[in-house]
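Hi L.,

You mentioned the student needs an example of a multi-chain input paired with its predicted structure. This one should do, with 807 residues in total across all chains.
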Amino acid sequence: MVSRMPFFFVVAALALPVVHAYTRDSRSAALPQGQAVVGNDLAGRFVSHEEHIQPGMVKPFAGMALRNPHDGDASAIATGAKLFVSYNCVDCHGADGSGAMGPSLADGRWHFGGANAEVFESIYQGRPEGMPAWGSLISDDQIWLLVSYVRSLEKGKNVTTENFGGATVERTGH
Amino acid sequence: MAMSRAATVAAYLDELPAARRAVLAPVLNVLRTVPFLALLALSACARDDAATAKKPAVTTVPGTRIAVPRRGPPGEWTQAAGDYSASRFSQLDQITPENAKNLHAAWTFSTGVLRGHEGQPLVVGNTMYVVTPYPNVSYALDLATEGQPLKWKVRPENSQTAVGLACCDVVNRGAAYANGRLFYNLLDGHTVAIDVTTGQLLWRTQMGNLAKGETMTMAPLVVKGKVIVGSSGGEMGVRGWIAALDEVTGKEIWRAYNIGPDADIKVGKRFKPFYHTDTSANQGATSWPANTWQQGGATVWGWLSYDPDLNIVYHGSSNPGPWNGAQRPGDNKWSAAIIARDADTGEMIWAFQPTPHDVWDYDAVNENILVDLPIGGTVRKALVHFDRNGFAYTMDRATGEVILAKPFVPMNWANGVDLKTGRPQLNAAKVPYQGKKVSFICPSLEGGKNQQPAAFSPATGLFYVPTNNLCMDFEAREVSYIPGTPYIGGNAPEVAGPGGYRGEFIAWDATTGRKVWGIKEPYPVWGGALATKGDVVFYGTLDGWFKAADARTGAVLWKFKVGSGIVGNPMTYLGPDGKQYVAIYAGIGGDMGLLIAGDVAANLPYDVRERGSTLPDIARWTSWGGMLFVFSL
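Structure written out for the whole complex:
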C-alpha cells in the first residue's frame, strides 16, 4: 500500500482541475471525446479535460520511498540467506527460493514487484495468499537483509522456457 | 429435522428421469407420510434393475468379503471410497476384460480450476457431484439430460490465505452424500453442507484455525448422522484432530486430538491397544519431550472407514512435527498411527504406530480397508493398510493386532516388522539424524504409497495398489516453530528407486503378503484404484494415461490419454440409460505434481520454476488441468 499511495495522489491531482472545470461549466456543455467520470458523486455526469490521462499501469513512485541500506553488499546476501532458513522461508519458497508451497523467488518474475521497496513491502506486510506479515515480528534491518538475499536469487537464472535437456533443481516433497 | 425423510423422498424424485418419476411418484408420495418405510423403499425402487437382474455371488475366494458391502443401488457412488469399508469396489460388471477395448470418452466437463484434482466425483440418483480444488467449487450435474447441464453450482466463501498454508497443493479429496445433503471441507478449515435439491448452503462450520496453519483437504465420512472430518497441516506445527459434526445443524459433537494428554485424545477405560508397550497413561504427551506435542502434527488428512458392527471409525494420523527427530526424542504417540475410535463418542479403542518416532515423514494416513479374509485356517476380521513406510499391514480390526506385515515396494529403512511388538526392525544406516545427510533411503518421504487409495475386489480376493518407487537423501536440521510457517527442519531430495521405474500398479494378496502382478510405470502412480465385478480394474498415471487392466492377470486392456496428469481416483456408476460409466479427474498437482515436478504450470506468469530432479521430464507429457472425463462402452 505504501508505494501505491503516491499513485492515488497523482490521480487526485489530475482529477482536481477536472472537477473545478465541471463546477464552472454549465450542465448543457457539449461532451467531447475523452470524457471522464470521477467518483461516485459525479456518477452519471460528464466532464471534460484537455490533457491525456495514461492508463494506470505504472506505479510512478515505486521504490522511491524505501531504500535498502544493504544494497550492493555481498555479506548482506550471505546473512540474508541464513535468515531465509531460520525464519522458515525456505520450506515455503524452496531451497534457493526455487519455489515450493509458495512461488519461486528465483525466476526474475515478481507477483508484487521486484524492486527493493516492493520486496520489502511483501515481507513487511505479507501478501494475500498466505505470505505472513513479518513487519511486527522481525526488525526492519533483517527484512532488508532478506530483501538483499531474495533479490540476488534471480541472477544468472534463465527459466523462461522448458528446456528438457537442461538443468534441474532438487526438490523435496511434503 | 429440517431435512426430513419425506423431503429426502422428494429429492429422490427429482433425481429420477421423467419417465421413471411419473411411474414412481404416486408410490413415493404415499411413502412420504411413512418415513421409515420410505427409506426401505428407496433401496428397492432405485434404478438398479439392470445390475440386480444378473447378480451372481461376488465372492469367488472362500471366506473373503468386504466387511460392509455398499448398501443402496449398486449404480451409485455416494461416498469417497464407494462404501464404508473403503473398498472402492463396484458391483457393476458391464465392462469386462473382453470388451474393455471398446471403451471411449462419453462426455467431459471442465471444473474451471487448474490445480491438483485428487478425490473423485459422487453419483446419487441421476446427479453427479463434483468438488474442485481450492476455491472448492461444487457442481451438481444432471446426468439425465443430454449435455449434463448444471443443476446448481456453489462457491462458498473460502479464505485466500489458505492457498499459501497448504503444504502440498490446494487439493480436495471429495465430498460425502447422506440424506439429501452434500458435505465437504474447505481448504480454509470449514466444513459445509449443501441441500442437494436446491444448492443452498445449509451450514458452514469453522473447524480449523488458519492462523496456525490448519487447513482441510480430506473427504468426510457420514456415520449415523455425524459428519466426521479431520485436519491437515502436519508440516505447519499444528496439533492434529478428528471431529464429528451433526449432519443437520453443523454443530460439533466431539473432537479428539491424536497427541497430548489422555483426556484430549479420548483415551479412557475402553482403550485397549494390542501391544502392552502402548498402554501407559498419558503417553500421547509423555512420549514427547516437554510440551513439544503441542506442535506435533499427527493430522487426519487421509481416508476414513467404518465398521458398523464394531461401531468403530478407522483413521490414520500424519507425520510428527518437525521432521527433525532430534527435536522430539520418544515414540511421539499417536503420530504416524492407525487409530480406531468409537463413532459416537470419538473414544480411542485401539491405536498402532507403524513407524514409532517417525523421522522419515512416513505418515500413516493411508486408507484402512476393512475386509474379512481367510488367514491361517480362520476367517479374520481384517484391516488392510498400505503404509507410507513401505509395509503392507494385515491387521485384526477389532484388536489392532498385526497379523502380517510385508514390504510391498523396494525398501531399506527397516528389515522387517517384529510381530511380537508390532515395531519395525530398523536399519541403523538409514535413520536420519540432525547434522548428517543420510543417502538413498527407500521408500522416500512420499512413501511406498501416498494418498492414492487402493481398491479391493472380493471377486479376486486381491488388493489393487497404486505405488511409488522413490528413494531419498535425508538431511535433518534444527527448526524453530513460528505459527503459520512450515515446521519441517529437513530436506529430502528424491530419485528413482531400484530398477529405475518410479511407480507400479500392483495386485496384492493380503492373506500372504505377496505381490501377484504389477504394471511398472515411469512415474509414481499418484491416482487411486477402482475394482469392479466385471474383473476390470482402473487407474490413472501422472503422465495422463487412464488405464483399464485385467484384475486377474494385470494385462492392460485399454488406455486413453486424458488432458492432464491424473492424481484422482476412478469411480463407476450406472447412467440413466442403464449403461456403466467410469469417471476420472485429470489435473496434475498435489505433492507430486506441484512440489516435485516443478514447472508444469503455465498459468502463473510470476511463478516459473525449474524442473525438479525427481521427475525431470514429466512436463513433456502433461500440464496443469482440471477436467472430468467419463468413459463408456
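You could point out the following to them. Confidence is low (pLDDT under 50) at residues 1-39 of chain A. The helical segments of chain A are 5-24, 74-86, 89-93, 116-125, 140-152.

Best wishes,
N.
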